[in-house]
Amino acid sequence: MKRALIISGGWEGHYPEKITRIFEQMIEVEGFEVDITNSLHSIHNAYPLNAYQLIIPNWTMGQIPFDSMSAILEAVQNGTGIAGVHGGMGDAFRNETEYQFMVGGQFVAHPGGQDVEYTVVIKDEEHVVTKGVNDFDIKSELYYMHIDPSIQVLAATKTNQIDMPVAWTKTYGKGKVFYCSIGHKPEDLMNKDCWTLIKNGLLWASANG
């Protein structure tokens, strides 16, 4: 049985508890044993991260102890996958530049506020993560991000006359990384195509090899 650890907390405006339950629902039906921690201080002591196939960070902003961050980075470098959404992964631990490098991007603005209507366009239709996913419209908070040019863009939207990545993959050491910028509210993830995209991303990141 595969194991996943969800790190749940941070800024309450991103509904960490509700989003965590959605993640849990997504992967338990795929046979995962899911552990959840609400503490950044216990990670390096209480959880053998190298024994997990997947880490899901769901912690907007905040500060993480050095030992806990080091344990996460080491686990991913050694082959544990990491995947998440919106600020829970893409705006976490703002002082941790190595973490941002691992993720492949960092939030810098949300043009238009929280209720922007935009179209998500699938850019890589051949990737396993986009299987069964169509272009879709969503009304939510649109993330403008600084990004690593090495990411593999799976989906994007048009903003400020450029294609801004919405979902991508990359690797960090031996570990697979998946990120999707959608997820300001739990309802965002209920969109059928968005749900499929994120679920596929979680499963892809957890698969070694």
Could you characterize the architecture of this molecule?
The chain has 209 residues and is α/β, with parallel strands linked by helices. The chain has a domain of 144 residues: Class I glutamine amidotransferase (GATase) domain (Rossmann fold). The protein contains 6 helices and 11 strands. The strands form 2 sheets. A 9-stranded mixed β-sheet has the order 2-1-3-4-11-10-9-6-7, with helices on both faces. Strands 5-8 form a two-stranded antiparallel ribbon. It is globular, with a radius of gyration of 15 Å. The mean pLDDT is 96.
| CATH-level-4 superfamily name of the domain at 3-106 and 167-206 | Class I glutamine amidotransferase (GATase) domain
Strand content: 25-35%
CATH architecture classification of the domain at 3-106 and 167-206 = 3-Layer(aba) Sandwich
Report the major sheet.
9 strands, mixed
CATH C-level name of the domain at 3-106 and 167-206: Alpha Beta
Mean pLDDT across residues = 96
Rounded radius of gyration (Å): 15 Å
Strand order of the largest sheet: 2-1-3-4-11-10-9-6-7
- The name of the CATH topology of the domain at 3-106 and 167-206 is Rossmann fold
Structure summary:
This protein is an alpha/beta fold and 209 residues long. Helix content is 27%, strand content 34%.
Question: Topology of this protein?
Answer:
Layout: E1 3-10, H1 16-28, E2 33-37, H2 43-46, E3 54-60, H3 66-77, E4 81-85, H4 86-90, H5 97-103, E5 105-109, E6 116-122, E7 136-140, E8 144-147, E9 152-159, E10 162-172, E11 175-180, H6 192-206
Parallel strand pairs: 1-2, 1-3, 3-4, 4-11
Antiparallel strand pairs: 5-8, 6-7, 6-9, 9-10, 10-11
